[in-house]
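Running log. JK asked me to keep both predictions on one page so they can be read side by side. First protein, sequence followed by its tokens:
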Amino acid sequence: MQRFFGYVLLVVLMVGLVGCGGGVTDTTIPAPPSSSEYQKGQDPTLDIMVDSFGQSMASSGTSTTNKFYISTASTEEIKNFYTTEMTKRGWKTIESPSLPDTTSVNFQADTNVAAINMIDMSMAGGTGILVITTGTNVK
């Protein structure tokens, strides 16, 4: 009889953990498909954008991690990649504010928020998609 109650308790605990999601253990944001991380000095126009973005995030007072990539994939391919990958890692899609000339998708896992912003560089005379990944812990 004690063994039965032990099994019942184990099943209740497992259901509770599954219901809570058990917490997300992988909070890294993967690099977008067909991309390379942007290195400062590759493009003067992008350097200004990257510096400006970094300064605005620093002045916001939140703890963030920003990475910049140039991808040859389309914005739709990038958005689909992140929707699939982040969901696999336990993140949930949350509403994204719409910004002019930008495609965005945001995710939340526990107290972590990931924002993925994509800018088509052809509108600035460049090529590829600038992908900005931002991870923030909102404790």
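And the second, directly underneath as requested:
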Amino acid sequence: MHNRANRGLIELFLTLSAESSNAHHPAREFIRTRYGRVVRQAADRLREARDASEVRWMDDDEIEQQVRALYAFMDGVQLQWLIDPDVDSVAVFSRTLAMIFKDWTGHDEVPVGSAVGVAHA
């Protein structure tokens, strides 16, 4: 996993994100913009997958909620790994993503090249 090789960057990003919850933090707008961009991009991919019938039907509100929950999960697991390096974040990510994709697709495997597959690549 790319992020495990970049512990310092993960720590910097998560610290900056948490500190940016303060309305007066100088990085607040950067973090808000970054989350807005990544959520929008992932939601666009998930809508493409929905429209191509690669995932179950979800309205746009559910898609945004699913994407936000996925990013919150990823940030949380990375934070747990920073606190305790024995946390097997790769296993946690793999198992949880498999459950999410199974919920979305009804299949155990995500087809390579599908819009939903691109979203998690």
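Observation for JK regarding the second prediction: The mean pLDDT is 90.
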